[in-house]
């Protein structure tokens, strides 16, 4: 899979479906992740973090996707079982079909308060 829009969409589909083998296959081994609830520097830790979030994940409602070079920005509402939907942006850098960097921004206060 070389189209970065397809790679990014496959990431969200795999996470939503809790298909962590497929999700892991999309990540470079040394992928970096920076978000309000974690900073990680490898694929296995990234998958573990997404597995943790999937325990409260209810839906990912994508509103907009923008592609710029090797970067994909996805704006979505993160629906959880513990808090109101959180408007979220996910910025992925994708090189040679692999996600090499993920940056996420959302307000985690309601999720943290529920935990």
UniProtKB/TrEMBL annotation:
Where does the source fall among the domains of life? Bacteria
Residues annotated as domain SnoaL-like: 10-101
InterPro entries membership: NTF2-like_dom_sf, SnoaL-like
Q: Which Pfam families match?
A: SnoaL_2 (PF12680)
Designated name of the protein: SnoaL-like domain-containing protein
Q: Which organism is it from?
A: Williamsia phyllosphaerae
**In the record, what lineage is assigned to the organism producing the protein?**
Bacteria, Bacillati, Actinomycetota, Actinomycetes, Mycobacteriales
């Amino acid at each position: 899979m070389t189209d970065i829009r397809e790679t990014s969409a496959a990431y969200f589909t795999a996470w939503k479906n809790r298909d962590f083998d497929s999700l892991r296959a999309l990540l470079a081994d040394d992928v970096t992740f920076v978000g309000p609830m974690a900073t990680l520097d490898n694929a296995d830790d990234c998958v573990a973090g997404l597995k943790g979030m999937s325990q409260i994940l209810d839906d990912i409602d994508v509103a907009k996707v923008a592609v710029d070079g090797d970067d994909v920005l996805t704006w979505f509402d993160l629906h959880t079982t513990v808090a109101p939907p959180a408007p979220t942006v996910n910025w992925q850098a994708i090189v040679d079909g692999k996600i090499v960097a993920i940056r996420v921004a959302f307000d985690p206060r309601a999720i943290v308060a529920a935990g």
